[in-house]
UniProtKB/TrEMBL annotation:
SMART domains: HTH_LUXR. GO terms for molecular function: DNA binding. Keywords: DNA-binding, Transcription, Transcription regulation. The keyword Transcription regulation applies. This is N-acylhomoserine lactone-dependent regulatory protein.
């Protein structure tokens, strides 16, 4: 890795990834950043904990011929690197996973035939049991240095965070209630009747009913009780 080059461009690279607006743009910036660190093939994607079949790529710089061969041979079901990544909290080199079964050995042999000899994988565990994996394959035969591992991990984390932002729907904003609607709901939440609420707010009963009905409609509820409960859960009123 060109140390001075990466050190001088690291923050600019991370900022460029942070400012991407599409997954394709993120992938392009990510692969550019990886090229600053070394000569790697790279694939990033998600693997579901309870759904066998291997990685579901979101971006890859591996040769198409290798990707087709890997998927066609169903190596994702037996890949020892992927299997270990599902339970590992940190990145690790491929050399930590010795092939045991015949198909695992075939995978390693085929990989070497394609010119890919060593690698480093970074698992990032999500809250839903899925794992976002970033798998780097190196053309050189030498091990991935500790400094490279730190740099690759930093890029992988930034890639995951931005990918999550781009693909996760924003939390819906709670409906906006007027001050009067919130006041009426707050008194109802404290056990007051329509008459009592009207008396405390110095309003007539029909006006109180009007505000409560509006709040019920905005919160898409069927009665006062569910309206109050939803307003509390959304933080619109406190009791």
């Amino acid at each position: 890795m060109n140390r001075d080059l990466f050190d001088s461009m690291a923050m600019d690279t991370l900022e460029a990834m942070l400012n991407t607006r599409t997954v394709d743009e993120l992938a392009a910036r990510f692969h550019e950043a990886v090229s600053l660190i070394g000569d790697f093939y790279c694939v990033a994607g998600i693997i579901k904990k309870f759904q066998p079949g291997g990685l579901r790529p979101t971006t890859s710089s591996y040769p198409t011929s290798w990707t087709r061969h890997y998927m066609g041979s169903e190596y994702g079901r037996v890949d020892p690197v992927l299997r270990r990544a599902m339970t590992s909290a940190t990145g690790f080199g491929w050399h930590a996973c010795d092939p045991v079964k015949q198909q695992e050995k075939a995978l390693v042999t085929d990989m070497h035939d394609f010119g890919i000899h060593v690698g480093f994988i970074i698992p990032i565990h999500g809250p839903d049991g899925s794992v976002f994996l970033v798998n780097f394959g190196q053309l050189a035969r030498k091990m991935v240095s500790p400094r490279m591992q730190v740099a690759l991990t930093m890029l992988a984390m930034q890639c995951y965070q931005q990918y999550h932002r781009l693909t996760t729907a924003p939390e819906p904003q709670p409906p906006a209630l007027t001050q009067r609607e919130c006041e009426c709901l707050s008194w109802v939440a404290n056990g007051r009747t329509t008459v009592e609420v009207a008396d405390r707010l110095m309003l007539n009963e029909n006006t109180v009913k009007f505000h409560l009905k509006n709040a019920q409609r905005k919160l898409d509820c069927t009665n006062r009780v569910t309206t109050v409960l939803k307003a509390i859960s959304l933080g619109l009123i406190v009791i």
